[in-house]
Every structure is written in C-alpha cells, then in structure tokens.
Design a protein that fits this description.
Blueprint lengths: L5 E4 L2 E4 L8 H13 L2 H7 L4 H14 L6 H14 L4 H17 L10 H10 L3 E5 L4 H9 L12 E3 L10 H11 L6 E5 L2 H9 L3 E5 L15 E3 L5 E4 L4
Parallel strand pairs: 1-8, 2-3, 2-5, 3-4, 5-6, 6-7
Helix pairs in contact: 1-5, 2-4, 3-4, 3-5, 5-7, 8-9
C-alpha cells in the first residue's frame, strides 16, 4: 500500500495528539514549562480541591511515600516531566493547569496544517471523531476548544485518556473505547505515531495507520508493519452504506 493509497471503510476515526495531530515540540517546549512553573502554586493553594487531592494521593501511592508533602510531590512531578513519563496523576494536574491557561488566553493549541481540514471533511461525511491521548480529558477539551481556527470540540464525539480508557499500549484499552462508542472494532480507525499503540489497536481488531512526520520523535523508528501516512490528506475514510 503506497503512502497515497490509504483507503478505509469505517464509522469513526480515533486520534492521538502528540506527533499525530500536533507537534510534540509544542507540548514539550510550551506546555511542559507552563505546567512546571505552576505545580507549586496548584499544590499549595488548592490541595482541598477533590481532583487535585486525588492526583496527589495517586502520586504518593506510585512513589510509595504516603507522607509526601507538597514540596516532595512537586519534585516528583518535575522528575516525571523530565522523563516524559505518562503518569496519570501528572497528566491530571497538567490538564488542570493547561485548561486554565487556555481559558485565560495564555495558551493556544497547535495543529499541523493538514489536520483541521481533514477533521472537518470527515465530520461532514458523517464519521465520528474521538480523541485518545495520554493527556487528560481536561487537557484534551482545552486543546480542541482553543485552536488558531476556533473551537473544534463540536467535531469530537468523545475524549479518552489513560484514566477512563487505560494504558495506550494495551489492547484492552481499545476494546473499552469501542464498547463505550458502541462500535464494532473493525469500524474504528486509529491514527498515531507510536508503533506500540498501533500494535495494541490492531490487536483489538481496529484499523490503524502510523502517522510519520519529519522531526517527530518516532520518525526514525518508523511505524513497524502498519500502513503509513505523512499527512492526514493521504488517508481516505468512507462510511459503509446503510
């Protein structure tokens, strides 16, 4: 299958964000420092917020330090950030900070030029669009609602993260999403730049395409034996006639 001959029959497209719809560099160079500079204030000033408290409890559980104070938790979050670790409590707290930053206008999300036209075309053709990212649902909602092209959330039917779906390299997570969406696995197409995620989606019975963009962290590694596209406009998705 050539790079310009990717055709699928599906009812929904499920999107990864970093490296797929959007530049990983933007997340690492803009969003990560933004959250790092605000972890301390969030932990000290809003420790009583239920979502913050749950995330802090999860950090303590993962580190095995049940007595960790705000300073210790912040140190752990920063270490995970340095490792680019996909820890759910880290993503939860980042999501809170980013959502507020987007709402204030401090942040505007990034999308590759080929992405938004494809999303609008697929949506107009009756395809459902979902997001499955390691970033929290709150972060995803803020990301899609605060774009250079306006609010894209109306295009999206559902948002999934590692908390409500599960780890992205486990097939069961994709089965869970299919069940939640009420769709047969072979009616779902997953787009991601990470081979392990593509493998898991395929193991769950989904179609999968590796998005391989020059300059992204996984570009040199490639997408294994999966179909490959450099841009969204190389992919044609059509719904099965009723």
């Amino acid at each position: 299958m050539s790079l310009r001959d990717l055709r699928f029959s599906a009812d929904a497209v499920v999107l990864d964000i970093e490296g797929t719809t959007s530049a990983t560099g933007f997340v690492v160079d803009v969003l990560y420092p933004y959250s790092r500079s605000r972890f301390g204030a969030l932990l000290s000033e809003r420790s009583g917020d239920p979502e913050v408290a749950r995330a802090v409890a999860a950090v303590r559980e993962l580190t095995g330090d049940s007595a960790a104070d705000a300073t210790a938790v912040e140190k752990t979050l920063n270490a995970w950030l340095d490792e680019d670790r996909k820890a759910t409590p880290l993503k939860t707290l980042q999501g809170i900070i980013w959502a507020e930053g987007f709402a204030r206008g401090d942040l505007v999300s990034h999308f590759y030029d080929d992405v938004v036209p494809a999303l609008r075309a697929w949506h107009a053709a009756g395809l459902r669009l979902y997001v499955y990212s390691s970033g929290s649902v709150a972060a995803q909602r803020a990301w899609f609602s605060s774009t250079p092209e306006g609010d894209l959330l109306p295009l999206v039917s559902g948002l999934y993260d590692t908390e409500n779906a599960g780890p992205k390299q486990e097939a069961e997570s994709y089965r869970r999403i299919a069940g939640s969406a009420g769709l047969a696995p072979d009616r779902l197409l997953f787009l991601s730049d990470r081979p392990g995620e593509l493998d898991a989606a395929r193991a769950a019975g989904w179609h999968a395409v590796g998005i391989r963009r020059a300059g992204e962290p996984y570009y040199e590694q490639g997408v294994g034996d999966h179909a490959e596209a450099g841009t969204f406009d190389q992919i044609t998705v059509s719904r099965r006639p009723a």
